[in-house]
């Protein structure tokens, strides 16, 4: 029999228990290295920058199209000079339909995205559908980014609306939240610092490593006790 199941978020745990109500399921989220991913920002001469990261998966492409077609025009009504940077592995076909838009820049594949985080003002997660936990958001948290997200985009992550993230359930709220942050550096710093604190406390590899180690020890001890009882 299965001694223990580990899920990466509460939603997945609930789905597992629907299928196996008697299962032992513990939530341990995907982790991030908060020593490697840490903010190192320098003031920029001009311009404001949004950051979207990922790959050309269908869910990411849908989110990116939503951003460019529906959210970015709302932001630019208040902040005309904003640039959208799309970081990650988006191939030629994906880029061809989107990068001709004004002030949208694709980085192409990069082995290290830290500079893009450090040179951006707001990290956006405009996903209307997701699955699993969102590692790119965990990285943004570790990098001390001000984050604006749909409710689905922060699924399974220890973020609190208004304190460590702005949660925007619709296009108008999303656009207004992004525009407000672009014009308020102090608010960005507050949100980013709070997000990094959450990453350090709940998502750092060292913290999760201790939790996994403790879980393995408990399962092994329970299995050993069961074996001893059966002798």
Kindly describe this structure:
The longest helix is centred in the last third of the chain and has 26 residues, at 205-230. The chain has helices spanning 10-19, 58-78, 92-96, 114-118, 135-142, 171-182, 185-203, 205-230, and strands at residues 5-7, 25-27, 48-55, 82-89, 104-108, 122-125, 146-149, 166-167. It is α/β, with parallel strands linked by helices and 231 residues long. It contains eight helices and eight strands. Helix 2 packs across helix 6. It has a six-stranded parallel β-sheet with strand order 5-4-3-6-7-8, sandwiched between helices. Helices cover 46% and strands 16% of the residues.
Structure summarized in a few sentences:
The chain has 231 residues and is of the alpha/beta class. Helix content is 46%, strand content 16%.
Keywords:
elongated; 231 residues; alpha/beta; six-stranded parallel beta sheet; two-stranded parallel ribbon; single chain; 8 helices
Task: Show the helix and strand layout.
Blueprint: E1 5-7, H1 10-19, E2 25-27, E3 48-55, H2 58-78, E4 82-89, H3 92-96, E5 104-108, H4 114-118, E6 122-125, H5 135-142, E7 146-149, E8 166-167, H6 171-182, H7 185-203, H8 205-230
Parallel strand pairs: 1-2, 3-4, 3-6, 4-5, 6-7, 7-8
Helix pairs in contact: 2-6, 5-7, 7-8
């Amino acid at each position: 029999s299965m001694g223990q199941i580990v899920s990466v978020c509460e939603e997945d745990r609930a789905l597992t228990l629907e299928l196996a109500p008697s299962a032992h399921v513990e939530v341990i989220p995907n982790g991030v290295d908060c020593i490697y991913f840490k903010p190192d920002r320098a003031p920029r001469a001009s311009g404001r920058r949004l950051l979207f990261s990922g790959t050309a998966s269908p869910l990411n492409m849908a989110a990116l199209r939503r951003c460019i077609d529906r959210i970015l025009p709302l932001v630019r009504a208040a902040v005309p000079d904003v640039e959208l940077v799309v970081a990650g592995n988006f191939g030629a076909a994906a880029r061809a339909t989107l990068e001709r838009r004004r002030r949208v820049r694709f980085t192409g594949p990069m082995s290290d995205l830290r500079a893009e985080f450090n040179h951006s003002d707001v990290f956006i997660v405009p996903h209307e559908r997701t699955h699993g936990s969102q590692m790119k958001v965990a990285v943004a948290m570790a990098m001390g980014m001000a984050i604006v997200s749909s409710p689905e985009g922060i699924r399974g992550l220890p973020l609190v609306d208004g304190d460590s993230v702005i949660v925007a359930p619709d296009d108008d709220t999303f656009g207004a939240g992004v525009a407000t942050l672009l014009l308020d550096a102090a608010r960005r710093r507050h949100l980013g610092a709070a997000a990094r604190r959450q990453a350090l406390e709940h998502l750092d590899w060292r913290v999760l490593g201790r939790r996994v180690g403790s879980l393995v020890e408990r399962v092994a001890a329970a299995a050993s006790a069961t074996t001893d009882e059966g002798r």
